[in-house]
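Below: protein 1.
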Amino acid sequence: MGVLAGALLLSAGGVAVVPAEAAEGPTVTTRYGQLRGKAGTTAHAYLGIPYAAPPVGSLRWKPPSPPARWSGVRDATTPGNPCMQQPSSTPWGNLAGPGTPSEDCLYLNVHTPAQRSPLKRPVMVWIHGGGFTVGSGTFYDGGTLAAEGDVVTVHLNYRLGAFGYFAHPGLAEESPHGLSGNYGLLDQQAALRWVRDNIAAFGGDPGNVTVFGESAGGGSVCQHLVSPAATGLFDRAIAQSGCGFPLPTQESQQNNGKAWADSLGCADVACLRARPAGDLLTASARPTARWVPNVDGVVIPAQVTDALASGRFHRVPVLQGTTADEGRLTVATTYDLAGRRLTAEGYPAAVRALYGARTDEILSRYPLSGHGSPAEALGAILTDSQFACLQSRTAALMAEHTRSYQYEFADRHSMDYLNLPLSFPIGAPHGSEIRYVFGGVTGTPAQSALADTMLGYWTNFARTGLPYAVNAPRWSPYPRVQTLAPEAIAPTLTFPQEHRCDLWNRPAA
C-alpha cells in the first residue's frame, strides 16, 4: 500500500560552505554546531540537519550513533537526500521527494514561524509513511503548518526497506541485547532525542513534543507508544491511518532475513556489508522478506494491540483516525491505474485471494448490490479490515487509560484536483487527509474551511492535549468519532457498525 514520505541529506564530512545568498539567513546554535537556515516571509526553514552519524560501512544495520560536531556555520538551506528506496509512482508523485536516495540519509528539517515569540512553541515531529520502504520527510513542507499553527515542525528521514528492517541471526549476535531489525524505528527515536536536546535553540519547547505520522508513520507512532525506549521522548501522539498493524516476530524476521541473505550468496553479515547499497536495494525487491518492524521483546516488547490491552504504553493523550475510503487507493493502483478493471465476475475471486476461507462470510456482508461498483465494494472491505476497525480497536483500548480521540476524514472530493483516470469515485482514500493537516488546500470554500479547522485541531492538540479550533464543533473523546467533512463536522457513535467491526475485530478462533 502506497503512502507517504520522509528524507534529508547533506555531505557527512566537514562543513558545507555557506553560499553568499544564504549569508543573511537565520542562525541557530545546536549541541553539534551552528546552522544557518533559509529565511521566509511567514516561516524559516533549517534543512538537512544531521541527527545521527551516517549508517554506512560498519554502521550498516547498527543502531544509530550521534552525529559528529562541526566547526564554523553549517549551511542548512538545502535538504538532504532521501534514504535508499526504489522510485515510487503514486497519485501524488514520487514519494522520495528531491535528491538522490543514499544510505547517508539520517537528516531532518525544522520549520519555525518567522515571527519571534517570547514563549517556547509546541513541537510537532512528523514521521512519514510509505510502507516502511519509500518516502521522505522533505516530501512534506512544514512551513505552512508552522506559521499558521504557531508551532515548530520537524520532518525526519529514517532507514527504509532492507536497510532499516533487515533482521538476521548474525546481527543479533553483534547486539548486546541479542536484537536485530528495527533500525528504522531506532532512527526515529534518535531523532526524537535530538529534538529533546536541541529544539529549544529553534524556539521549540522540548517539554511539549507531539509525534505524528501517517500510514507506516502512524504505525510507527503507535510502536513508540508501546516502546520503553521512547519513554520521555514525546508528550502527545497522533496516528493517522496506521495503528495496531500486526507485526512479525523477531524469529520469523530473522529466518526470512537469513533466507534473503542466502539468496545473495552471503553466509554472514560481513558479506552483506561488503555489498554495494544499490545491489542490496535491487535484491530487496524480491518477495523473500517483509521489510517491517518486528516484535523483538525490547524495542517493541509486544504486539501493539496486546500492549495497549494490558495498559503497557505511554499514557499520553492520543488522537487517531482513518479516512472514509482508505482502501480505494489500493484498488485504484491495483486495477484502473494498472490498466485493468475489476469486474463483477472478478470480485469474488479478488476477495478469495485476500481472505481465503472467510470469503463467503465476507461476501455476504459486502454484496455488490450495496455498492456502486465492484471496485467500491472491494475498497470498502480493505478500508474496514485493514484500517477502520483496527483503529477503532486501538482507540477503545487507549480510552481505558488516557484521553483518546478518534476521527474519520470524509471529504469524498478530496482527490478531485488530481483528475485520476478511474472508472469509480476514489472518495476519501488513504493519504488524502495529509494536505488538509499541513495547510495550503486549494479547492472549494468548504474544503479550505475544513483544512483550516483540521490544522487548528491538530496544532491545538499539540499545544494542550485537547483538539479544538476556532469556531469549530467540540471534539469529544472516544467512543464519539469526529467526522471531518466539508459538509459538516460532527460526532458519531455508529462508526463500528458502519464499518462492520464485529466482523473484523472478532477474536481469532
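Below: protein 2.
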Amino acid sequence: MSTTARQDTGLIAATAQHVAEADAAIATLHGPTQGIAVHDPASGQLIAHVPDSTPEQAVAAARRADAAGTSWAEQSPRHRAQVLHNWYALLIEHGERIAKLISREMGKPLAEARGEVKYGTDFVRWYAEEAVRPGGNFQPAPDGGADILTRRAPIGLAVLITPWNFPLAMATRKIAPALAAGCPVLIKPATATPLTTYYAVQLAIEAGVPEDLVQVVSTSDSAAFSTAVLSDPRVRKVSFTGSTPVGRTLLELASKNVLRSSMELGGNAPLLVFDDADFERAIEGTIAAKLRNGGQSCIGANRIYVQSGIADEFAAELARRFARIQVGAGLGEGTELGALIDSRAVAQMQGFTDDALERGAQLLAGGHGYPGAGHFYAPTVLDHVDPAAQVSGQEIFGPIAAIRRFNTEDEVLDWANDTEFGLAGYVFSQDLDRALNVADRLQTGIVGINQGVPSNAAAPFGGVKQSGLGREGASEGLEEYQSIRFYNISRRTTH
C-alpha cells in the first residue's frame, strides 16, 4: 500500500508501515485461526479471528472471575490504585500501537484513534486516583443514642457489554471503575472490534491485575450470552452501551436477579446555533460534534438547528468545509474521515440522504458512497430538512449533517425536546444567560456549550428518558460498582 490517494475513488490509501504495526499488535494476541472473523472496514480485508464462545463457556468465565474477585476485594484501595496506575503506564507506553490497532479494526483516522487512546487511558488514571476515595460517612443519629456509619463495598461480579465505536475508551470506562471498587469483571466486546479490548486486558494482566479477574468473552450470539450470564446468581451488576431496544431487553433480564444496571443507550442529539453565536466556533464545534468518529457516536449531533439570521451563511460554510475533508483509510496519511463500520452503515446513510431529498431537502455537499472495497460515505450536508425525514427522528450514526432553520428560542426548544431520547445536546451562543437557560431547558444528560466534544473522564456521562440510566466517569462512575452498607452503632447515653 502507499500513501497516495486511490485513483479510482480519490480515497486516501492506508500506509503500509502503519498497517504492519497494527498487525504486529494483533499477532501478540495469539488468536484462533477460526471463530469470529474481524475485518478492516477500510479494505474489507480479514485481519484476525477471535474465539466464538458458547453460553456455557461464558458462564464458566464468570465463575473464574467471581472466584478471583474475593481476594481482589480484600486488597487495600492503595494496592488496587497502584495496579491501575501500572495499567495506565503500560497503555501509554503502548499508545501508538493501540491507536493503529483501533484504526485497523474500527476504521477511524489515526489522529482520532490517538485521541481515543488519551481519552480511554484518562479513565484508568482517574479511577486509579478514585480507588483510594471509596466514600462513606459517620454521623450521630438525630435523636441520639446511636451513631450512623456508612461504608461502600464492591457490588460483586460485573458484566460489561461494550460497543464497537470506541473499542478502548468504552472498555476502560467500565473496567477501570469496576477494578477500583474491588469488583471482578466479565467483558463482552462487540464482534466488529474485539481486538483492542483483548490487547488492553492483556496489558492489564501484565500490570498486575490477577489473570482470572477480568475475563474477555467474545461471541456471535449476544442474546444467548446475555440470557445465560445475567441468569447466573454470581452476577450482581450489568453495564451496557448500545441501542435502546437492546438496553430494554437487558433490563428485563437483569430484573430477574435484581441486578444493578447502568445503561448508556441511544441518542438523537440536537445542536442549536443562535444568531449571536461566535460563527467560527459554531462551525468548528458543529464539525466536531457531527464528524467525530465519522459521526458514529452516541452523542454525535443528529439534528442541527440554526437560527434564521445566520442560517444561509452557516449552511454554505459548513458545506464548503465538508467538501474539503479528506476521506480514506484510517491508517492513511492525511485522512480526516475514515470508513464506516460496515456496508449496512453505508446503505443506511444513502437511504437517509435519499429520503431527505425526496422530502424536499437541498443537498449542499456529499450525498454518495464510493465504489470498490471498503465502507466509505462522503461527508454530507442537507439543508431545509423536513422534520418528518428519517434523519430527523432516527440516530444517524454517520457523516450526515441535517440542517433546519428556526426563529425563536421557544420554538427550537420544542423541536429539540420532541424525542424519546435525551443523551446529549449542544448550544452555541455568546449570550451567557441564553446559553445557560437553554442548556437548563434541554432534556438531556449532557450539554456542550460552545463546544462539540463535551466528554471528559472527570464528568458523569449519561442520559435521561430513553437514553439510559446510571452514569460513567467521575466519582459517580465508581459508585455504580459499589453497594452502600449502613451500621447502626448503639451508644450508651451519659444522662
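The radius of gyration is 24 Å.
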